[in-house]
Design brief:
The protein is α/β, with parallel strands linked by helices. The protein is 37% helix and 19% strand. It has a single domain, classed as Alpha/Beta hydrolase fold, catalytic domain (Rossmann fold, 3-Layer(aba) Sandwich), CATH 3.40.50.1820. The longest helix has 25 residues.
Length: 262
Amino acid sequence: MELFFFSNERLFGSYHSASEITSTRLLIICPPLFDEYRRCYKALVDLANGCASKGMHVIRFDYLGTGESFGNLLEVEGGQWVKDLDDCIEEGLALTGAESVTLLGVRFGATIAAQSVHNQISRYVFWDPITSGLDYIHYIEELNQQLKQQHIELAKIYNVKTVKDNATDSGSIDTCYQAFSYSDDFKMWFESLTLDAKRCENKADTQVIRTGSTSVYENSLDNNIYTNCTLTNFDYGWPMFDVSLLSPKPVLEAIAEKVLKL
């Protein structure tokens, strides 16, 4: 595995070279956001290593303002992450000499992947995709409220004075804490995004894998999306709070099968 920066040194990537150096196939992994990324990080590394061992070049990367990439979320403008993905595709093609690209999008990473219309994309693989940016913003805002309430309750338990509106007090903690903060421009763009697997299929082979959850926040599946692999015996609901890591072997095997499909 080779770690590198690209796109004017602003984006961070990890390159897993194919076991067959002459391979013309490239997999780019579009990760989920925030704590979901933490929970499945190891799974995505394992998946990248496995696909590389089967003859695919693989690149994982962080969107601008996330992970190891430059900046913070408040500085990210609407549409930036789709541009980041297209930059990653171009970098990957130049680095590997690949002729075709498979995009693996996880959760909201699938929503972002669906926006790319790069002409060398040959396959989309979506793992538990979010089809509504508006629904997912509601999910994030609900998560922020729950975290804020936990913050207040902990302050009461430990008898710590709380303050509001970002006031300064060395003996206080800020109850206005938010896990994820973003600009109004970014929020408007985020809310406007949708994923239509049927439309994606018109551009490239499209595979959808879901793990049985039907929550509107966790799996916004509607009449515009179909599922060609449902693992009903593995019902992982992508809960709001979960300290465990997610590395489900049945799901990873199903994804690898779809990714490596010739």
